Known about the structure:
Elements: H1 9-19, H2 31-43, H3 50-58, H4 71-92, E1 104-108, E2 111-115, H5 117-128, H6 131-138, H7 143-147, H8 150-156, H9 158-166, H10 168-172, H11 174-179, H12 181-205
Helix pairs in contact: 2-4, 2-5, 2-12, 5-8, 8-9
Amino acid sequence: MTLHAPLTDAEYGELEDFLLSEDLPEGHMDIAMLDGFFTALAIGPNTLVPSQWLPVVWGETAEEPMQFESAEQMRRIVDLVMRMYNGCMQSLQEGIDEFEPLIYQREHEGRTIPIIDEWCMGFMQGVQLDPEGWQPLIEAGEEDAAALLAPMLLYGTEAGWDRLKNDPELEARHQQIAEIIGPCVIGIRDYWLPRRKAAATFRREAPKVGRNDPCPCGSGKKYKKCCGSAERLH
């Protein structure tokens, strides 16, 4: 199994069960949050390395570190997480025109209601990992550009929850807001695409990194023990 193999439905279920475990730190993500989080990482202005975002997935802090039951469990779960991340990166960078978030749903009075809070919270956690990078979009003067983040800000931040609580009309538009998340994701991806392409061009022109050179991700390890290793993650 390679890190680029897509997750099966059973593997999504396996990862979801792990993330719902009470043994994880309090701030860990569920599968919907993780999908929103990876979406933000995939379409954002800069590429972040796993050492920057893996602790966020577990909700790891200095006071509450992540602890796996065994090395085998760690390898298995990290493999699932990385494959989900790679799948999200690949699908959103291949020029797709449609996107559907992975969200929970509930039945209410014969209707299926999308629960978008967790997904939007995960997305905003991805944004908050690179606040300077995302700032131009957050402060965009163009009305259309700034509106692209509106659903995520509304359902994924405390300020947004306060707006929903105090504005019944917004809450009544829940289904409509849920339906525009997909188009907003594509719009955000296209907004940052020129910047990401420029960064990719710059990386291709950079000198080749030797296996014994320091890893360019900044971990302090040798490249062969870090990003250049098929077995380890930094």
